[in-house]
Structures are given as C-alpha cells and as structure tokens.
Amino acid sequence: MPAMGKVFLVGGGPGDPELITDKGIRRLAQADVVLYDALIHEDLLLHCRPDAEKVFVGKRAGRPSERQTDINERLVEAARTGANVVRLKGGDPYLFGRGSEEAEYLVAHGVPFEVVPGVPSPLAATAYAGISLSHRDLASSMAFITATESEAKDATAHDWPRLATATQTLVIFMGLRKLDSLMQRLLENGRAPDCPAAVIEWASLPRQRTVVGTISDIAERAREAGLGTPALTVVGEVVRLRETLRWFDQKPLFGKRVLVTRAESQARELCRTLRDAGADPIAVPVLRIVPPEEPGLLSRAVGEVGGYDWLLFTSANGVEAFFRELALQGGDARRLGGVRIGAIGPATATALRAQGLRADVMPDSYRGEALASAVLAATGALDGAAGAAMRGQRVLLARAAQAREVLPEMLRAAGAVVDVVPAYRTLPPDAEACAELRRLVDPATLDVVTFSSSSTVTHTLQALGEGGVERLNRLTLASIGPITTQTAESHGLKIRVSADEYTLGGLLAALEKHLSETP
C-alpha cells in the first residue's frame, strides 16, 4: 500500500483569480490531483503542474452537478494513492462551501487534511460593488445566511422574527430565486420597506453587475435587469455607500471582452494588465514559440558570442532563447565579456534585466530601423561616416526565423558584419485554438481583438479562414504599433486603435482613449 496522501481544502477566492492567497497558489503548484468547482476561474488552474490531474466536479446552484457524496469519495480515493490532493473551492471552504462536511468525511476515513482559507465572496462582492459591510455610522453588526439549506431539514433553521432586525447588515447567499419571498419575510418581521438592498452578480469579475433598490422593490429590479446566479443580496444602510464608493465598475475598460492573441508564454502579462483596467481578457494564443529548424546555428553563435562587438535582440523571445542555450552550455553572462547589447524596446530590455544585464542602447521608437540608428549613433557611424565607423564591427542578431530585414541591412550598409541567427520560430495555432478562435470572433462574444505583432495578424486570419476579415472588422481591432497596423491593413483589416508607444502599456492607453471617446 502506498503512503497516505493529504488533502488540502483550498479557498480559491470569489472570482478574480488574483485574490487567491499565496499559500493557495503554493498548494496548487504541489498538487498531483485537483478537484475544482464550477465557479473557479480557469486562470487558477495555470498554477497547477502540467502533469497534475485536474477534475471538474461541478457544484453550481440550480444546475446538474456531481453529488457531494461522490466528491467525498473521490477525495479519499485519491489520497489513498499517496497523492497530494487539492479540493479547490470558490470563496472560502468553510463559508457555505460544504468544506467542513468534506473535512468530516476525511477525518472519518483517516485522511489527513489542511484548510487554506480564501477571500469570502461577501467581502469581495461588497468591496468591488462600493459597499462596506460595516461602517462606523451605519453598521456595527452583520449576519451571513444562506437561502439554500439542507434538504434533510424539516423546516428552515432561520429564526426570521429575530434575524430580520438582529443585525444592521444582512448578506444572503444563493437567494436570487427566492428573492420575493425573502424580502417579504424581512418586511413581515420588522425591516422597513425603504431599507436599502442590493444584488451583486458575478462579484469581482468584469461581468459584475450591481442592482440597488429597497426591500420593497429589489426583487422586481433584479428581474428587470435580468440578473442571474451567482449572486449575493445585501440588505442594510451600508448599501447607500455605493453612491460614493463605487470604483470597480468605473474602470476605463470595465466589462469589455478583449481577445489576447499573444503566445501563451506572453499572454498572461497582457491579460493581467487588461484585468487591472476592468476588462475581461480572453486568451487564445494564435502562435506557438518553438525552437529554430537548425538549432546548431544558435548553439554555435552562443558559443562564440564573446567574439562579437554587438549582440542585438528584437524581442523578449529572442532573449529567452539565447540565454536558455547559454545555460545549456554551462555558461553565464560572463561569456559576453565586452560585448555591447542592444534591445529594441522595453519588453526586450526587461527580459535582459532578468538575466542580470542592461542594454547599452534602446531606441525611443521600438522598430528595427530605430535600433539600427541607435547602434550607429553609439559607434559614431552617422552623418556619412557610417562605413568607416562600423567597418570590421561584428554584430550578432538573435531573432525570430522570419522577420523584417531592415535592421541587418542598415548595419551592413554601415560596414558591419552581421550574423542573423534564428533563435526561435513562430508557428500557427493548433486545431483546438483555431476552433476556439472561430467560435469567439463575433460581436456577441467579443468587443476588442488585440494584435501585438504582425505574426498575430497573419496567424489569426489563417485560423479564421474565409470570411475572417469581415468577421474581424465587426469588432474593435487594436494594434501595438505601425508595423503591425501596416500588416493588418494590407490584409484589409480596419485598425481602429494603434498605440503611439509600441508597448503593451501603450496599447492599453490607446485602447482606453479610444473607448472613452466612442459612444
């Protein structure tokens, strides 16, 4: 028999994937098996090891889902194989999450467990809606109740005559379908008809919606707004704070559904930036970063890098590929010696800093010709003296297998000896990504499509196939800069947003400006 494993009951937070705790992330990274609920944000599963078994177990109110007894048994069975098991639950495991029932079952079967608390949904829902659960002048007490109780009970356990007025703030879980009757109980037991109430749907996510009213009309207002589950209901004077404290749904890109087409390894940064602006990022990588067809060229160049005068990078991917090969050879940054380094822009410079290096040159305009001019200026090779100043200079350019030739051509024209070495290739998306892209590109599903390179444009069009241009032109298309815009427009795409600064930050700023000016 294998040694007994352990089960970790982990609270995944209320929805926003960045609200999970550090310990929760660590337990996910260590897990062999993860059993997760329906309301878990898919980005949380990115913290799991690639080889971890990820099992969806439902648990969504009002919809078919796995029985709790089956989930309990799964936890025990997995632990008995010696596995580290994470039971990933929305919000906090012990707050109306049935985590305590799972823990009791584990104890009864001799399975060790640990609880990792999560941010409870009422704390996040009210904070993101601009409502404070407590307030010095408005509320010094609160109660959490669920509208969905155990079917084993003969009658409700709620003492409504006391509960209705016992606390100044009342939070009701899973009560949307019973909102009429719940509000009626509060009225019958002493709450004033004009007491403020709010229903918060999809708390902490860009799709969050908040409807405010009073006990007497909140059910009707929620119906008119078409609110659905998951939703929390908040009753009390603190609801009035929303008029001045709302912030989340005031963000510049709040609720906008934005397609991120970058490679998987790079998409997370842009998704995080978009989420900070209130957008709902949807990542579908339309290109894959793979090693070059002739890896020996990069290997040889890395081995001889100390003999070059300049080492130039035009992407973070190139930096990562170069230093990965350097590490495989048992080398480090010392091999570069007196080699001067050029980076095309901030993202590339950041990748270099991660290797403990600073770029000697980085142009103000993040294009190949600008990097060439910066290198020429740094060697005094401008104003007609280019050939003399660069003659004999050896330049190594580690880049994508297919790229614009303007950079090496300008340096060669200045007398430099330039070795262009493919450090990586970009390939089209796989069949699954293509199918997902074809499903998503529609105004009913998306608001914005972002292009961060010419490759993302061409691969997106290839994936969409016939009619792709027409489908994309029904959406707001945003480009990171003029080269990407030029590529897109050459295919007939209508770029409505083009960044002035050719960075992810510049793309976001341009998108915010455009959407603020568009009705």
Number of extended strands: 20
Q: Mean pLDDT, nearest integer?
A: 91
Distance between the termini: 66 Å
Shape field:
globular
Structural class: alpha/beta
Major sheet size, sense and barrel closure: 5 strands, parallel
Poorly predicted residue ranges: 383-387
Give the strand order, joined by hyphens, for the main sheet.
3-2-4-1-5
Q: What is the name of the CATH class of the largest domain?
A: Alpha Beta
The value of Rg in angstroms is 28 Å
**Count of helical stretches:** 20
Q: Care to describe what's here?
A:
The chain has 519 residues and is an alpha/beta fold. The chain has helices at 22-30, 68-80, 99-108, 121-129, 160-166, 179-188, 218-225, 242-245, 264-276, 295-303, 316-328, 346-353, 368-378, 386-390, 406-413, 431-440, 454-464, 468-472, 482-490, 504-517, and strands at 6-11, 33-36, 53-56, 84-89, 113-116, 142-146, 169-173, 196-201, 209-214, 231-235, 257-260, 280-283, 288-290, 310-313, 340-343, 394-400, 417-427, 448-451, 476-479, 495-498. The protein is globular and about 90 Å long. A hairpin with a 7-residue loop joins strand 8 and strand 9 (209-214). Strands 3-2-4-1-5 form a five-stranded parallel β-sheet, sandwiched between helices. It has a five-stranded mixed β-sheet with strand order 6-7-10-8-9, with helices on both faces. It folds into four domains: 6-118, 3-Layer(aba) Sandwich (Cobalt-precorrin-4 Transmethylase, domain 1), CATH 3.40.1010.10; 123-249, Methyltransferase, Cobalt-precorrin-4 Transmethylase, Domain 2 (2-Layer Sandwich); 257-287 and 428-517, Rossmann fold, CATH 3.40.50.10090; 291-425, Rossmann fold, CATH 3.40.50.10090. The model is unreliable at 383-387 (pLDDT under 50). 36% of the residues lie in helices and 19% in strands.
